[in-house]
Amino acid sequence: MKKSFLLLCLFGLIVMNAQAQKLRGTDKSPMDMAYYPDNFAHDRKFAPQLIGNMPAIVRVTYSRPAKKEREIFGTKIVPYGEVWRVGANESTEIKFYQDVTIQGKTVKAGTYSLFAIPTATEWTLILNKDLDFWGAYSYNKDNDVLRVSVPTKKTEEVIENFSIQCVKGSNDKETTMKMAWDTTLVEVPISF
Asked: pLDDT by residue (tens digit) across 105-148?
């Protein structure tokens, strides 16, 4: 009886150990971050001369869905006229390290979810106070802190994975956040 009990316990431990070794599979839409200054986290450590004393201004955390030979905008992937999470998986979040201005409207330093309502000619960009939820399923318009319209542009080439990059703007107190996927590009000037 003791041997049977010990064998049963040993078997149980082996099964529990095997279960503990398993990890969830990777997301099909890998997570990425965009900073201004561009590549801030890397350059701060490995190339400080590239950013000097400039602090981080913006950080965007998002997932990068792939085109995979599909038509993207105006389809059931990203329908026109509906709220989109601007990326994939969890809602995209944008963090401002200091107060900024977007199209003449002040946005306080802090972290916001980033949504868009795309059409063929423009995107309505939305910053919202709600954080930490999946997609746009729990989106609540009452918690918007900013809505601005930005015209769309056509890219010169197809962008396979949705991408965000913050580049130097027209002066030292401005960045342009570029968002592109498929053949669509929007550019959002952000002053600080």
From this structure: 999 999 999 999 999 999 999 999 999 999 899 999 999 999 99
**Can you tell me which residue has the tokens 């981080």?**
56
Residue 181 forms beta bridges with which residues?
184
What span, in angstroms and rounded, lies between the C-alpha atoms of 39 and 144?
A: 28
What's the chain look like in SS3? CHHHHHHHHHHHHHHHHHHHHCCCCCCCCCEEEEEECCCHHHHHHHCHHHCCCCCCCEEEEEECCECCCCCCECCCCECCCCCECCCCCECEEEEECCCEEECCEEECCEEEEEEEEECCCEEEEEEECCCCCECCCCCCHHHEEEEEEEEEEEEEEEEEEEEEEEEECCCCCEEEEEEEEEEEEEEEEEEC
What pTM did the predictor assign? Answer: 0.81
